[in-house]
Design goal:
The structure holds 2 protein chains of 2 kinds. By secondary structure, chain A is an all-alpha fold. Chain A is 60% helix and 0% strand. Classes of the chains: A mainly alpha, B mainly alpha.
C-alpha cells in the first residue's frame, strides 16, 4: 500500500 | 529496487562520507553550514521513526541506521569537536523561516493525520529546503572549497537520480508518491544553479569555487 511504499525509499 | 534508486542512495552516502572525511582529515569545518547539517539530522530522525514500527528489508534498515549515525557524527564534529573552526558568523540563515512553513505544510498536506505520517511528511518537506543555509553561506562568502562543492554535487545528484527512480517506478510499478515527487523536484531545482557553477568553474578550473 501507499504508506509502506513511501517508506521503502530512503 | 532499481538502478536509479541504488545509484541515488550510493550518491547520498558518498556525499555524507565526503563531508565527514573532509572535516575529520582537515580537523576543520570552515565553510560548512552547521545549520544545514542539524536540519539533515532532524530530517533523518523524523523520517526513520518507522525503524521502530515496520521492517522492510535488511538493506533498508542498515541504510537508515547508517544515515542517522553519520548525520549525528557530522553535527558532533561541527558543534563539539571542531567547533573552534565553525564559521558561525557566516552561518546566519534564519532557520525558523524554513521550519515554520514546513511544520504548517506537513499538518495541511499529508497522507494520514497521524503522528508518524505527519513527521514523515515534515521530513520530506524539510529535506527539500535543508541545504538552503549552506547555499546561503556560499553566496554570502562568495566562495566554497572544492571538497565542499563535491559534497554538494553528490547531494544534488542523489536527488536527480531519485527523480529518475520515480519515473521508472511510475512506468514499471504504476507507483508514485506525490509528496515525495513534488518535494524532490523542488529540492533538485535548488541545485540547478549550483550544478551550473560546479561544471563551469570547479571541474574546469582548480581549487575553490568563487562566485562572480
Amino acid at each position: 500500500d501507499r504508506v509502506m511504499g513511501g517508506k521503502d525509499e530512503l | 529496487m532499481n538502478v536509479f534508486r541504488l545509484a541515488g542512495d550510493v550518491s547520498h552516502l558518498v556525499a555524507i562520507i565526503i563531508l565527514l572525511l573532509k572535516i575529520w582529515r582537515s580537523k576543520s569545518c570552515a565553510g560548512i553550514s552547521g545549520k544545514s547539517q542539524v536540519l539533515f539530522a532532524l530530517v533523518f530522525t523524523t523520517r526513520y521513526l518507522d525503524l521502530f514500527t515496520v521492517f522492510i528489508s535488511v538493506y533498508n534498515t542498515v541504510m537508515k541506521v547508517v544515515f542517522l549515525a553519520l548525520s549525528y557524527a557530522t553535527v558532533y564534529l561541527i558543534y563539539m569537536r571542531f567547533r573552534n573552526s565553525y564559521n558561525s558568523e557566516n552561518d546566519t540563515f534564519r532557520v525558523e523561516f524554513l521550519l515554520v512553513p514546513v511544520i504548517g505544510l506537513s499538518f495541511l498536506e499529508n497522507y494520514a493525520f497521524t503522528p508518524l505520517e505527519i513527521l514523515w511528511t515534515f521530513s520530506i518537506f524539510l529535506e527539500a529546503v535543508a541545504i538552503m543555509p549552506q547555499l546561503f553561506m556560499i553566496t554570502k562568502t562568495g566562495e566554497a572549497e572544492s571538497i565542499t562543492t563535491h559534497y554538494l554535487f553528490f547531494l544534488g545528484l542523489y536527488r536527480a537520480l531519485y527523480i529518475a527512480n520515480w519515473v521508472w517506478r511510475y512506468h514499471t510499478e504504476s507507483f508514485y508518491d506525490l509528496i515525495a515527487i513534488v518535494s524532490g523536484v523542488v529540492q533538485t531545482i535548488f541545485f540547478c544553479d549550483f550544478f551550473y557553477l560546479y561544471f563551469t568553474r570547479v571541474l574546469r578550473g582548480r581549487g575553490k569555487m568563487t562566485l562572480p
